[in-house]
Recover the amino acids of this structure.
């Protein structure tokens, strides 16, 4: 049986500290720390105390009363809830007396009194803490003969989550999570006493990016996830621990499958990273792996259409093109979706072919010089001091990092300073939050940091600069300039780069970083100008990912020969000459690197779809075919080579394999080339400065091929301040014309006070009209006109 | 439609300003909403959420905990007959039967004309005057079948219009804190020192 | 503003009108007792003036010396409670518990309706003495008249400069904010009261760590005091601790208000001398209840609010004093005595109380939420004549899951049982869960035969009201 109990996960014993105390549990001495809860100390000592409401990552409420234990008090033994009672030196705890046993049985009997006995048809059956504890700590029979509580059968409280109120034991885990952890208190206890039930507000669903976590932490089958309902029984599942590569936070997961099909991801509690949480996109996009639309065999273009080809023919076609290409005319775009090993083998091949045109980013990130600053980790950022946010809305792009920072700010460990062109998910938590128009972030930050209170705050402790590309319609040079401003004021600051794609930092670190400043935009431009004879798209889809749509189009069209290595026939792949099916997440082993530079493993759980192969295999075979023997036949060979070639990776092969939390690799220090941001032109007051930013759900291939979340994207629209809306003379929901010198498109308009006046926020890559037509690479900022129609 | 009226928003803001944290005004504002519409509408709860900085789900979570908030229309007069110990000892049960018979409705029901809703209530803190009841939270003590009938007659004839406001209004007198006298509410995190009258000395 | 808002039918709280000392009910005899005019004419706000003439610490000391016992139920001395606030943590708040809802309890409402200024003055003295910078006066939602009277009094007091900024020209400044509930018994529990005051569901917090004096409203040190407790302070501040302790006994000085309801000849709210008056005095005394109605026999009585284990005639000579009642197997709680005469249907009476607590459970903790309802359902089956023998044992079993171990009960000479002293152990967060069990346990301990008659002679007992 495969059960996952993250709640019981407590990492290794802390080193000796002045707060160390000793307690005895059932006669056994147990080392603990002052302030620690009895239940946590007991967990570490493997003395299991039953519990339902307690969750180590949320504040204890002590309401299920299942964790009662006896401690020796001044007036004899007394019952206390171990989930809210801190340890004290010399404390004597007993979990095995008849009184405790009676209490455990009694509470369980009461919990089961109104709980339906529908375990055989319940999704949770087989991995249900209530069921398990009823066996281990229950009396065995119910004396409850009254009629049980009845509610209308499961109700959908969101697009993803169902609630069966009859099964709910009112432990407050989901509601506490929604409020405390996610900051989306859209579910609440309602009614009172025996009628208490968890509910949403009428017609206001539990639309939280984190709703799936409530399903995972529900100790019964009250909350179930739509994508998993009735799919499998726990005892049919096989699982392996892995890392989510949907974004670069790198949350730890278990991948669960049955009959060679992935059925579920669950969060695993990695202390330095995700604390057990996942975002819904990461949790539910496993469906994409199972999609019917996956590429299953190599495709070779003949005329206007593709025909299936054998691997050897397809690879030979590619290899021939490479061999015949003029030196310096091969380009590789992408690599951030694969493993370190994938990217490394492609870099090795690129080296062999003398390829200088390579970039794992799609002109949507920051220059690699961001890695040249002192680097922070998620833990170091959350531990204390000040966090300066010069980043996209983390809730939309790096959801679990958002949760970690939110928690740190909420618990008053850190103070957040945010400079952004519209409010973000963390604005409410921020100590200082300033709106600055795109192109003026560095100036605004400079002014803010000059404030004496802010300066004192920076000087009072560690400073972390969270830096990422907030606006795809603004040159990255502005962000870099702002980082320099911050470092100029707080020289002790460390940088946490928040480049978004799953393994972008890994790919850049192992050799797919641009050389001589030739980044993706420059490569596409070169290609458009006829200088690329072979363009390799390594899980890259410039046609939908590069902000300058015109550039992407011209770049792809200009390449003489295009090879796409992908899991789906993407927009760009459709223009390829050869398409090679790649093994997807869960279909290959390897390692990945998160935004901190932390290397963890990803695992193969099912056989690759059709004949698809891991990217590294494809690279190794092509290397062979172009006459460069890498000597690699297995993943272990790749890893050996990788750890010997790439500084910092030496330790990873062994350490990663054994350690859930991975190791943070300090891979080289790219030289910092000072970038001076071209000052943004002043905006004509009749125009709007365009803010092109991402939403969690967009048309990313993993999202649109996962039915559960495919429909959750918000759709293209332009959002402006309510007063601007008045000025434009349009009503909310009406369509407006958004235009500049380059083009003009028609979008529905929305209004929000979270957007300052003069700014127009348009979400990236949404269904609907494509704003990218108005963007030209290299422009400092983009200003647009908005007219009502 | 059933958001708070402009006048009530003004009142709401005044009430909110008395608390160091706006959320504390939730229950008073729910009363205000109930006073306005006779029951608490979804729109009002959304509006209150906006005013105090809570989600509608949180406002509803709070509201539904308390007996007095109704989420569907009730009669103009809500008659709560107490059924707890002292009243039960003194014949509350019979009074309830009588009331049901007289009004032709069951406990929890409303007369077809929408005038009277009948409910069973818990201890009303008038135990020495049992059995007792409340009409829109105005007491009637040592209630017999006869004076119950008189009460119903009076309600039906409109004789109590002046004395008993329609359901929703509890207290007809509001507290007003004159601006020149108010100390004012300060968020606790903004308070750094002890009160002036302690002169820096610790209280005991 | 109307000075006499709302309206009631005349009623007759049988407050004691004799010439023993009266501390909190002295103005009840006046028709206009709730007006500022009357209050000022009867020593009103003199206690405040006396307090303001001394350093705060001295006033606090005085209250401590007087041992003003909390009248909300737990009986903890107010002066000591104020002293539990952590040093140097500001701000501190006063929350006045005017949520009076314990079955049988009836005194705070009278104090608020009849003498609101006395309460206001009490709040001011407490705030001054303990350095509390804001006061929230939480009145039960269903008490329209009390809310109106207190609102009107506050408006008067603000206008007269008794409340607000620089009170009576001193450095003492405090706002008293009238707050009101919306119907939930459990909100009378002090941590639930605080939750409710924060705009949340009124669910109790765990003590420890959430002792209000340390972590209360908004996480700040907070004193929660009952209305009657605070109403004692003006008299005390005027007359001093020595005068206060001269009344009553050493451990229970002063007076207290007791509501006696049920089957007595003259039910009413009496201000009695603490510690000296016995239950016999109260139930049979000429100046109090004057005996059981129709001169029936006394069957049982609840000595301290619906949560208290029951007494019978065996305990009539127990004096009204916490420790004595505790040793005899119950508690004085909120000063509410409910009397059952020989005609009372005991299982049904127990059901009435158990149903109350089951209905009022906040739902937070399992034993109370599930156990309370379960007790109610078994009991109502038994009362309806549909129960079995096993049900009676099951009631005690469920009780064990709520309150493990021996539950307090009174002695009974006839049955040959001796008392188990108060208090009990509990698996719950607050006392609501145990309170659902207390009547069941008392009734089953003292009157088991009545239950057995019900379950053995099924359906033969007609289902009637509690009394005829
Ligand atoms: C379930 C429960 C209900 C209570 N109800 C009330 C109440 O209605 N009024 C009250 O003053 N105290 C009530 N109390 C006691 C309060 O928790 C608290 O002890 C009291 O307000 C403190 O005031 P005092 O020290 O002045 O007595 C209740 C306690 C419990 C456990
Ligand atoms: S004992 Fe009852 S009322 Fe008290 S906290 Fe538990 S569930 Fe709530
Ligand atoms: S786990 Fe401790 S009370 Fe629920």
């Amino acid at each position: 049986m495969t059960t996952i109990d993250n709640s019981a996960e407590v990492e290794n014993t802390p080193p000796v500290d002045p707060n160390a105390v000793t307690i005895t549990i059932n006669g056994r001495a147990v080392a603990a720390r002052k302030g620690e809860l009895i239940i946590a100390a007991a967990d570490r000592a493997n003395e299991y105390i039953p519990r339902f409401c307690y969750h180590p990552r949320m504040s204890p409420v002590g309401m299920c009363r299942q964790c009662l234990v006896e401690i020796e008090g001044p007036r004899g033994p007394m019952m206390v809830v171990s989930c809210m009672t801190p340890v004290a030196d010399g404390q004597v705890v007993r979990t095995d007396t008849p009184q405790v046993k009676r209490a455990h049985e009694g509470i369980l009997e009461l919990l089961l009194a109104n709980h339906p006995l529908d375990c055989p048809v319940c999704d949770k059956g087989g991995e249900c803490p209530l069921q398990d504890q009823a066996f281990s700590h229950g009396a065995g029979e119910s004396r409850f003969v009254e009629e049980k509580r009845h509610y209308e059968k499961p109700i959908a409280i969101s697009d993803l989550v169902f609630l069966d109120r009859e099964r709910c034991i009112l432990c407050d885990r989901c509601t506490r999570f929604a409020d405390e952890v996610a900051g989306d208190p859209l579910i609440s206890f309602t009614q009172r006493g025996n009628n208490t039930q968890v509910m949403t507000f009428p017609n206001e669903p539990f639309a939280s990016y984190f709703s799936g976590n409530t399903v995972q932490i529900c100790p019964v089958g009250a909350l179930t996830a739509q994508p998993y309902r009735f799919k499998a029984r726990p005892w049919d599942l096989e699982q392996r621990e892995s890392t989510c590569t949907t974004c670069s936070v790198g949350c730890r997961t278990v991948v669960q499958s049955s009959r060679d099909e992935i059925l579920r991801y669950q969060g695993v509690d990695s202390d330095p990273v995700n604390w057990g949480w996942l975002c819904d996109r990461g949790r539910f996009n496993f469906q994409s792996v199972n999609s019917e639309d996956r590429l299953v065999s190599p495709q070779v273009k003949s005329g206007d259409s593709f025909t299936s080809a054998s691997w050897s023919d397809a690879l030979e076609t590619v290899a021939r093109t490479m061999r015949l290409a003029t030196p310096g005319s091969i380009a590789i775009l992408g690599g951030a979706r694969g493993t370190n090993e994938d990217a490394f083998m492609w870099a090795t091949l690129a080296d062999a072919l003398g390829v200088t045109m390579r970039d794992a980013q799609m002109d949507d990130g920051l220059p690699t010089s961001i890695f040249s600053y002192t680097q922070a980790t998620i833990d170091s950022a959350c531990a204390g001091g000040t966090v300066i946010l010069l980043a996209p809305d983390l809730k939309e792009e790096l959801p679990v990092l958002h949760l970690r920072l939110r928690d740190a700010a909420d618990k008053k460990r850190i103070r957040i300073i945010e400079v952004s062109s519209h409010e973000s998910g963390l604005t409410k938590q921020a100590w200082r939050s300033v709106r600055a128009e795109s192109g003026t972030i560095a100036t605004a930050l400079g002014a803010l940091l000059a404030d004496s209170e802010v300066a004192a705050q920076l000087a009072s402790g560690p400073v972390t600069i969270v830096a990422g590309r907030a606006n795809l319609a603004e040159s990255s040079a502005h962000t870099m300039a702002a980082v320099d401003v911050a470092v100029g004021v707080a020289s002790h600051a460390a940088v946490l780069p928040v480049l978004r794609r799953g393994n972008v930092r890994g790919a850049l670190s192992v050799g797919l970083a641009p050389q001589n400043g030739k980044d993706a935009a420059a490569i596409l431009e070169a290609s458009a100008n006829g200088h690329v004879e072979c363009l390799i798209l390594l899980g890259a889809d410039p046609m939908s990912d590069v902000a300058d749509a015109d550039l992407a189009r011209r770049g792809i069209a200009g390449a003489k020969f295009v090879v796409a290595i992908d899991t789906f026939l993407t927009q760009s792949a459709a223009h390829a000459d050869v398409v090679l099916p790649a093994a997807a997440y869960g279909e290959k082993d390897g390692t990945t690197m998160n935004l901190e530079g932390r290397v963890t493993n990803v695992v193969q759980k099912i056989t690759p779809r059709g004949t698809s192969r891991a990217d590294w295999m494809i690279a190794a075979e092509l290397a062979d075919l172009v006459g460069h023997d890498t000597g690699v036949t297995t993943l272990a060979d790749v890893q050996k080579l990788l750890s010997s070639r790439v500084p910092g990776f030496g330790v990873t092969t062994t350490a990663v394999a054994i350690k859930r939390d991975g190791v943070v690799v300090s891979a080289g220090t790219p030289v910092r080339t000072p970038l001076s941001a071209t000052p943004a032109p002043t905006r004509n007051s009749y125009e709007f400065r365009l803010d092109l930013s991402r939403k969690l759900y967009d048309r990313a291939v993993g999202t649109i091929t996962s039915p559960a979340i495919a429909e959750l994207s918000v759709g293209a629209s332009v959002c402006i301040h309510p007063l601007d809306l008045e000025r434009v003379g349009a009503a909310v929901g009406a369509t407006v014309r958004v235009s500049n010198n380059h083009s003009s498109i028609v979008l529905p308009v929305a209004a929000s006070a979270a957007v300052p006046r003069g700014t127009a926020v348009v979400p990236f890559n949404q269904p609907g009209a494509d704003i990218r037509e108005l963007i030209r690479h290299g422009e400092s900022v983009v200003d647009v006109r908005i007219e009502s129609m | 439609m059933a958001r708070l009226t402009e006048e009530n928003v003004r009142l709401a803001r005044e009430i909110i300003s008395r608390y160091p944290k706006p959320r504390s005004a939730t229950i008073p504002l729910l009363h205000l909403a109930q006073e306005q519409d006779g029951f608490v509408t979804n729109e009002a709860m959304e509006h209150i959420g906006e005013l105090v900085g809570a989600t509608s789900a949180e406002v509803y979570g709070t509201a539904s905990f308390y007996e007095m908030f109704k989420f569907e229309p009730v009669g103009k007069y809500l008659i709560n007959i107490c059924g707890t110990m002292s009243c039960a000892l003194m014949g509350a049960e019979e009074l309830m039967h009588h009331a049901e018979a007289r009004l032709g409705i069951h406990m929890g029901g409303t007369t077809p004309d929408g005038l009277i809703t009948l409910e069973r209530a818990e201890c009303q803190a008038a135990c020495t005057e049992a059995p007792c009841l409340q009409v829109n939270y105005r007491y009637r003590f040592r209630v017999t079948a006869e004076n119950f009938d008189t009460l119903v007659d009076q309600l039906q004839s409109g004789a109590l219009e002046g004395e008993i406001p329609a359901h929703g209004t509890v207290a007809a007198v509001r507290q007003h804190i004159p601006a020149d006298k108010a100390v004012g509410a300060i968020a606790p995190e903004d308070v750094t020192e002890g009160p002036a009258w302690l002169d820096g000395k610790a209280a005991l | 503003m109307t000075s006499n808002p709302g309206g009631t039918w005349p009623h007759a709280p049988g407050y004691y009108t004799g010439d023993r000392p009266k501390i909190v009910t002295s103005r009840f005899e006046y028709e206009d007792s709730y007006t500022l005019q009357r209050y000022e004419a009867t020593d009103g706000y003199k206690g405040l003036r006396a307090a303001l003439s001394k350093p705060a610490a001295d006033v606090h000391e005085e209250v401590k010396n007087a041992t003003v016992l909390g009248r909300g139920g737990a009986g903890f001395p107010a002066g000591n409670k104020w002293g539990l606030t952590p040093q140097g943590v500001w701000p501190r708040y006063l929350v006045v518990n005017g949520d009076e809802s314990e079955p049988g309890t009836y005194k705070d409402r009278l104090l608020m309706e009849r003498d609101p200024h006395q309460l206001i003055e009490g709040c001011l003295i407490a705030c001054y003495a303990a350095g509390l910078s804001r006061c929230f006066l939480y009145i039960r939602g269903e008490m329209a008249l009390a809310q109106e009277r207190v609102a009107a009094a506050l408006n008067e007091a603000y206008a007269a400069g008794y409340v607000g900024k620089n009170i009576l020209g001193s450095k003492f400044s405090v706002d008293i904010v009238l707050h009101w509930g919306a119907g939930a018994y459990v909100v009378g529990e002090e941590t639930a009261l605080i939750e409710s005051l924060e705009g949340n569901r009124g669910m109790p917090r765990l003590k420890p760590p959430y002792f209000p004096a340390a972590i209360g409203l908004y996480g700040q040190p907070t004193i929660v005091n009952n209305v009657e407790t605070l109403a004692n302070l003006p008299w005390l501040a005027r007359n001093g601790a020595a005068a206060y302790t001269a009344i009553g006994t050493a451990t229970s000085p002063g007076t207290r208000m007791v509501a006696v309801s049920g089957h007595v000849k003259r039910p009413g709210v009496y201000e009695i001398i603490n510690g000296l008056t016995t239950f016999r005095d109260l139930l049979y005394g000429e100046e109090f209840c004057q005996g059981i109605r129709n001169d029936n026999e006394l069957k049982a009585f609840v000595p301290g609010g619906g949560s208290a284990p029951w007494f019978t005639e065996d305990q009539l000579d127990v004096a009204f004093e916490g420790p004595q009642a505790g040793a005899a197997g119950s508690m004085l709680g909120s000063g509410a005595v409910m009397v059952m005469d020989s005609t009372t249907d005991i299982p049904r009476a127990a059901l009435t109380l158990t149903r109350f607590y089951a209905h009022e459970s906040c739902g937070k903790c399992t034993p109370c939420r599930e156990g309370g309802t379960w007790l109610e359902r078994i009991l109502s089956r038994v009362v309806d004549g549909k129960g079995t023998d096993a049900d009676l044992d099951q009631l005690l079993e469920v009780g064990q899951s709520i309150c493990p171990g021996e539950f307090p009960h009174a002695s009974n000479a006839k049955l040959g049982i001796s008392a188990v002293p108060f208090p009990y152990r509990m698996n719950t967060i607050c006392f609501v869960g145990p309170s659902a069990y207390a009547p069941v346990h008392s009734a089953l301990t003292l009157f088991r035969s009545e239950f057995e008659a019900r379950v053995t002679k099924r359906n033969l007992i007609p289902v009637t009201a509690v009394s005829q």
In short: The interface with chain B takes residues 179, 184-192, 199-204 of chain A (CB under 8 Å). Confidence is low (pLDDT under 50) at residues 1-11 of chain A.
